[in-house]
């Protein structure tokens, strides 16, 4: 799948529920907060800020932020600032501290950032704001793929901004504006569908060619029994590959939440680790469990969550062909500031071959894979499952370990202790 559509399907899926709920401007703060959260997670940015342009006073107002933004700074001028540059020039910007000269570099040096990606937000036929992501501490530059992510988020923000402001228009203007937004949404859906169809066609084309060539040789060439058997086996292998691919696509887009019930995490993890015990022993991989006592239950489909745990475990094993160490950790973390909710966090940390910085932000895209025989749907399916459980699946590397992290909301007022855990402190078990 092309870089231009990098992770856009995941973001569109994340914004879909907000689109259904937004009715007027009262719902926009929720949209803004969600946008900066998605940008922060997808880009691994230390700072994300969404500004709206107050054209009459010619300054930018902060409407949402994530990360190290000064809480008392609610507005900044357009003139002489990095976000203001994007407004004045009406174009996206990627800038890094290592660049030699130019106005954007000088504006970046005036901040505490080492790298920035800035995109304007277009709505109602003009620039209405700016979305900025930043990194600190001699960070690597943002990429064109990162800018694409911000552009998708900016476009979705503008659509919801326009929708929310329709109530201020006259009936005639409302109907015209509604038609305009419907056309934009439909165009975005068709464009996304076109990108997806192209990717699926590419994945299906190779095995179809192999099947066609094998059948052609079987029908038109005199072959020995050994060669006939080999071509038939090749054909069967490619058919099974196609069946598997179609099934993974169905799983990826399966929206069902049937079977949701209070579910304990530790028994599912135990089942998965028992199933791979022989494989890890053969490969010289040690497994360590660091499991929180009294882990709350989550609302989930046990078989779906088990599938995610199994896939992440097998991914870690494949990353350590020469042996290594896999840590499976669970813990309870608090929700957002001001929230009384809690979340269960499950980490799969391995010291295998790792994932490069250029690839780690693309691994949840459908059909993206670094494996020779992979379909690139395993992590995309897992991402969708976790998201349908109201959670987040993310990945990062600290230089020596690759960590896949699942965060799931706990059951409000129903956080029964996990029956497997009876000690009063986190349990560490070496296998």
Keywords:
Beta-Lactamase; Heat Shock Protein 90; 3 domains; six-stranded antiparallel beta sheet; six-stranded mixed beta sheet; 14 strands; 45% helix
Detailed description of the structure:
The protein has 431 residues and is α+β, with helices and mostly antiparallel strands. The chain folds into three domains: 3-168, 2-Layer Sandwich (Beta-Lactamase); 200-252, Helix Hairpins (Orthogonal Bundle), CATH 1.10.287.130; 261-430, Heat Shock Protein 90 (2-Layer Sandwich). The chain is 45% helix and 22% strand. It has helices at 8-21, 28-43, 82-89, 103-109, 144-164, 171-220, 225-252, 265-275, 277-282, 302-318, 357-360, 378-388, and strands at residues 47-54, 59-67, 75-77, 93-96, 115-123, 126-135, 261-263, 285-291, 298-300, 324-334, 342-350, 392-397, 402-409, 427-430. A six-stranded antiparallel beta sheet has the order 3-2-1-6-5-4, with helices on both faces. A hairpin with a 4-residue loop joins strand 1 (47-54) and strand 2. Helix 1 (8-21) packs antiparallel against helix 2, helix 1 runs parallel beside helix 5 (144-164) and helix 8 packs across helix 10. The protein is globular and about 80 Å long. The relative contact order is 0.10.
């Amino acid at each position: 799948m092309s870089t231009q559509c990098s992770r856009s399907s995941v973001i569109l899926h994340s914004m879909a529920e907000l689109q259904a709920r937004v009715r007027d401007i009262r719902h926009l703060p929720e949209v803004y907060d969600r946008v900066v959260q998605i940008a922060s997670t997808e880009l691994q940015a230390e700072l994300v800020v969404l500004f709206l342009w107050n054209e009459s006073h010619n300054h930018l107002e902060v409407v949402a932020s994530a990360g190290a933004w000064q809480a008392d700074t609610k507005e900044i001028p357009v003139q002489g600032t990095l976000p203001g540059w994007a407004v004045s020039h009406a174009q996206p910007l990627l800038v890094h501290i290592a660049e030699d000269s130019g106005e954007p570099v000088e504006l970046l040096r005036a901040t505490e950032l080492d790298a920035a990606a800035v995109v304007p937000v277009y709505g109602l036929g003009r620039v209405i704001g700016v979305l900025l992501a930043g990194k600190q501490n001699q960070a690597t530059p943002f990429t064109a793929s990162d800018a694409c992510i911000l552009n998708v988020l900016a476009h979705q923000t503008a659509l919801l901004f326009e929708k929310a402001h329709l109530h201020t228009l006259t009936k005639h203007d409302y109907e015209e504006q509604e038609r305009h937004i419907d056309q934009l949404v439909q165009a975005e859906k068709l464009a996304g569908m076109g990108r997806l169809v192209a990717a699926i066609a590419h994945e299906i084309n190779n095995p179809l060619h192999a099947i066609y060539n094998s059948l052609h040789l079987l029908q038109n060439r005199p072959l020995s029994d050994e060669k006939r058997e080999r071509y038939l086996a090749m054909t069967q292998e490619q058919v099974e590959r196609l069946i598997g691919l179609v099934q993974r696509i169905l799983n990826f887009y399966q929206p069902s939440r049937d079977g949701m019930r209070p579910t304990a995490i530790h028994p599912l993890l135990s089942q998965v680790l028992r199933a791979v015990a022989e494989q890890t022993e053969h490969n010289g991989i040690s497994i360590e469990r660091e499991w929180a006592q009294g882990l709350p239950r989550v609302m989930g489909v046990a078989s779906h969550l088990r599938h995610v745990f199994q896939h992440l475990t097998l991914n870690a094993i494949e990353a350590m062909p020469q042996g290594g160490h896999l840590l499976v950790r669970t813990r309870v973390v608090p929700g957002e500031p001001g929230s009384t909710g809690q979340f269960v966090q499950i980490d799969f940390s391995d010291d295998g071959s790792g994932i490069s910085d250029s690839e780690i932000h693309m691994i949840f895209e459908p059909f993206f894979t670094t494996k020779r025989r992979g379909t690139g749907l395993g992590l995309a399916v897992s991402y969708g499952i976790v998201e349908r459980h109201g959670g987040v699946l993310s990945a990062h590397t600290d230089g020596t370990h690759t960590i896949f992290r699942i965060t799931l909301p706990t059951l409000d007022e129903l956080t029964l202790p996990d029956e497997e855990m009876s000690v009063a402190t986190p349990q560490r078990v070496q296998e």
